């Protein structure tokens, strides 16, 4: 089923096996908690089975990161760089930026594309170009740049809750938040999930609101080439952590010719012609080197997506039988980058919090991440405003406590995924002992939040 937390059939762990006692029975986590290194298991075997926080060998010698850059064909990239150096045109809509804009427009199914130096600037430009003012409705469960872009353009973010399955804006909450001050909706295609439902589009139309999408996660993710739910505009990120990147980069796509023309002025200081400035613009242009990387990266898109899909399938199989770790499922009807391995940790089942799991994984040399904790409405400069307004976002707050993003990308193989899932299963089996060890651990690699939370926690398990 589309977008349901994934729980399918699993397969045996590749590197760890269930911890079996002398009588052949699988030991419960409670027994392990009070009886580490039982005499009937040889020390080397125990070391292999144990989580690193319990004295076992780390699952990985090298570190696995979330968002490690994907590297496209070096020779092709270097050829393009040579072309740039020989031409002498480094920026200001050189031929590679023009090619990049054409490719992005084509892939996204939009008529116009304006390349930018990053998505944050792209969002600010789109907000300004669309004439958003007053209040704009936005999710709190997003990267802070979405909200900063509004605030920096003098627009007040009105935070809205999210759907617990897709993590995108809850349309009923959006409807309830519309007032006479509202001029637009800024939705986020989080994790590459589409936020652009027909209902949201109808709502925007009905109330005459601008509809902008932060599609930083979503380049290349769509059901077909037409992109019928584009909204007024959509902004991609080509930051190095994205599946397709341009070192740093962004792009605004739209079907609105007037908006595109305006954005082309805004992105270049507002210059209409030499010496003629018509708008309050900025310098948001993409440079030729970024376009060279962006184009080369786009050429590798199918390979990157396929690799990520293989990793995703390995995660789905490897985590299927791990209780309390739910992998967000992906609709096979949509083309998808699978760039985010989104899991939700249920502490009542796992016997450890998400933060404790993230901490235990650090010692395995796995840098899992707790995106987007604690939610933008609880970060500065918005926390004070939210507090004064008595704002609570129950789904956002619950999801922000549970989400754990696991590493994928070209630097992670499906064998790595098998090993990682097996180690997560081991950690979960040994949860009580793991939690006790985290509380006592002084290892500087441990994220401060895990120790702090563990020290102040009363009854996690
Ligand atoms: C949802 C979201 N919006 C905006 C951005 C900002 O993108 P950029 O780094 O290209 O400015 C990011 C960056 O990761 C993001 O995740």
Can you characterise this structure?
- With 461 residues, this protein is of the alpha/beta class.
- The chain folds into two domains: 29-68 and 301-368 and 407-456, Aspartate Aminotransferase, domain 1 (Alpha-Beta Complex), CATH 3.90.1150; 74-299, Aspartate Aminotransferase, domain 2.
- Helices cover 39% and strands 13% of the residues.
- The protein has 18 helices and 14 strands.
- It has helices spanning 29-34, 43-49, 74-87, 95-108, 119-129, 144-152, 171-177, 198-206, 257-266, 288-299, 301-319, 347-350, 354-362, 383-388, 394-402, 414-429, 431-440, 448-456; strands spanning 64-65, 112-116, 135-139, 156-160, 182-188, 210-214, 233-237, 250-254, 271-273, 276-277, 325-327, 341-345, 366-367, 403-406.
- Bound molecules: pyridoxal-5'-phosphate.
- Residues 118-120, 142-143, 145-146, 188, 214, 216-217, 237, 239, 250 line the site of pyridoxal-5'-phosphate.
Entry keywords:
39% helix; alpha/beta; disordered C terminus; Aspartate Aminotransferase, domain 2; disordered N terminus; 14 strands; Aspartate Aminotransferase, domain 1; 18 helices; single chain; binds pyridoxal-5'-phosphate; seven-stranded mixed β-sheet; three-stranded antiparallel β-sheet; 461 residues
